[in-house]
Amino acid sequence: MSSDSLSGSVFSIEVDRRPVLVFSTKFYSQAEAICCDPRIRTKLKAVLSGGHPLWNDASKLRVRLARTEEKHKYLAEAGRRSGEQTLQLVYLVPLDEDTATEVMAAEVD
After folding, report:
1. What is the DSSP pairing of strand 61-65 with strand 52-53?
2. Quick one: which of 23, 25, 4, 2 has its CA closest to 12?
3. How many other C-beta atoms lie within 10 A of the C-beta of residue 51?
4. φ, ψ for residue 19, nearest 5 deg
5. Contact 24, 74 (CB under 8 A)
6. How far apart are CA 95 and CA 46, in angstroms?
């Protein structure tokens, strides 16, 4: 993994004010675009935590700068992953076992 992949700011996506995932990008405008991307919404609908999808059509999504503990979790998790992923997503909530194995290598082009 190149050092560029860990440079930039770390942002959190909240679903109904609950932080569910973090990622890194250089600009807030890019983070907003990622939050609005239909692929992220599709992924959040497919990912289960406690038997429920992380997002549904009635939920509100919001992006913000990650809090210190969220940033630390992102840096620790993203630093352990290998590969040339375009966007690394680190989940902040526990994922159901069958879902977790599918999303550990989460990638969005």
Report:
1. unpaired
2. 23
3. 7
4. -65, 125
5. yes
6. 11
Secondary structure class of 94 (helix, strand, coil): coil
Tens-place pLDDT, residues 37-56: 999 999 999 999 999 999 99
**Other beta carbons within 10 Å of 1:** 14
Quickly tell me which residue has 């082009």 as its tokens.
109
All structural domains of the chain with their residue ranges? 3-103
DSSP H or E stretch at residue 19:
strand 18-25
| 41, 61 contact by CB (below 8 A) | yes
Nearest Cα neighbor of 89 from 102, 105, 100 is: 105
Enter the tokens of residue 45: 């609908």
CA distance 40 to 83: 20
Laid out side by side, the sheet with 18-25 consists of: 61-65, 9-15, 18-25, 90-91
Given a contact cutoff of 8 angstroms between Cβ atoms, the answer to whether 64 and 12 are in contact is: yes
Q: What is the pTM of this model?
A: 0.81
